[in-house]
Amino acid sequence: MKLSELLRDRTFETLQTIDTTIDITDISTNSKQIKKGNLFIAVKGEQADGHTYIDEAIERGAAAIVIEDRGILSLYSDRIPVIIVENTRRFYARLLSIWFLHPSRNIKVIGITGTNGKTTVSFLLQHILNNSQSCGLLSTVLYDTGNRQCVAQQTTPDAAIINQLLAEMHNNDLAYCAMEVSSHALSQHRVYGIDFHAAIFTNLTQDHLDYHHGMEEYFLSKTVLFTQLEKDISANDNKNKTTDKSVGISTIQSIHNNSLTGFHKDIPRRLSIINIDDAYGQRLCSLAKGRVVTYGVSSKADFTATDIDTHLSGVQFAIQVKDQVFPVKSRLIGIHNVYNILAAFSYAYEEGISPQNIIQAIESFSGVCGRMEALCCGQPFHVFVDYAHTPDAFQVILSSIKKLSQGKVIAVFGCGGNRDQEKRPLMGEIASRFADYVVLTNDNPRFEDEEKIIYDIEKGFAIKRPSFSYDIIPDRKDAIEKALLTAQPDDIVLILGKGHEDSIMKQGKKHSFSDQKVAEETLQRMFKKHPLRSIK
Length: 536
Known about the structure:
Layout: H1 3-7, E1 26-28, E2 38-41, H2 54-59, E3 64-67, H3 73-76, E4 82-84, H4 88-99, E5 108-113, H5 118-130, E6 135-138, E7 142-144, E8 149-151, H6 159-171, E9 176-180, H7 183-187, E10 196-201, H8 215-227, E11 271-275, H9 279-285, E12 291-296, E13 303-311, E14 314-321, E15 324-330, H10 335-350, H11 355-364, E16 373-376, E17 382-386, H12 391-404, E18 409-413, H13 423-434, E19 437-440, H14 450-458, E20 469-472, H15 476-486, E21 492-496, E22 503-506, E23 509-512, H16 515-527, E24 532-533
Parallel strand pairs: 1-2, 2-3, 3-4, 5-9, 5-10, 6-9, 10-11, 11-12, 12-13, 17-21, 18-19, 18-21, 19-20
Antiparallel strand pairs: 6-7, 7-8, 13-14, 14-15, 16-17, 16-24, 22-23
Helix pairs in contact: 5-10, 5-11, 10-11, 12-13, 13-14, 15-16
């Protein structure tokens, strides 16, 4: 692609004459991946500053460089074309969208953000939309482009990967993409330039405060997804819209041999779909762009859940939309999943899918790996694996399960190392209020001392209830086995924190580990039956 195509109508400046007819063969922020003809973008990261690797990029054959540090211009202006921008992260993400010919303008991308519920909402939306058309998925668990699936490495990946995958979805004739959007991705501009058709807000509770400096900063990072709706398309950009489908994940260069012109189907006004029961959601309603649609249980919302009945086999409730009422049954467990269902239903309904088709899809949806996933090996008690790793998620799940339990509630959990330490005693306090027996163990210690993490959690135990007790077993495998061996008929064992994850990080090393596998192997030894998961 010509440099002129990448720079057309972009906000940038240069203090030298640049030959914009030069061909750019690729774009990268990694100096070690630069090859002849590539454009190198110097990004300031958390661990390193790309500006310090410019010399290496030039030696490897960079055709031009993009910087945000004006002070170093004189060091390179005589050697290579230099483009100066205000924010290289944002510029990089925008260029990747151009590089892949704006794939998000050819499918309807639905961004889902919030502290909890993103994964379930994204999977459920994909399931609903697949019943009528076709929908890709970018989630914490996996990426699905229509003809292939791969394990996700990040909730929201790098801008290059996002645009590659969206281009592949377009190539596979998908009409939608349900995308989880993390606060990290928003603050680091990974989704800048993505033309979101809709944004969904689930909730906001304490998490990631090791990264964000307080809840207000955390909230403001989330608002970006909603305040940027409808801002990315300009009249000049329309010239670059295309319906060409020659894009393949491994044949990126081929798209640049095709025409950059084409037509683009009209996309209606954007949607902001917001949980109005959440205090931050209420604030967001006044900030969001597009048409604001609300959902909730206790507040007056556009989509309201009433007559809620929760049990260990699922939930049953009614969704009220103006003067219409739609009964819903789902195999998803807990009040939090009522909200997740409401979020997905709201978008699908606003998109024009018939309520009957939406409800049919909801009722056939079996759930997501590691999200209240039931394990059944013939045992006389219940076992669930869940990803809950925040105080709010603990509060919701443990309080819900406590109400449904006919026996004791047994919880196995730890907290991640090198992450928000403030939430550890909060999670301990919540567990001590709703669980009868807790086994404290490791989660992902990363580079932190395992005993310190457990001690931080233990400080939150309010050991005033005579029925509450706990043990500390650092080895997670032994901890799970202890909980299962302790369980009696009608008890509920909750294995919390890791969900779908299949490894434990210790001192920078990844060790294979699956809560489901350990639990199933233990139950098989105890009850001599093969596992039957009610949720897959």
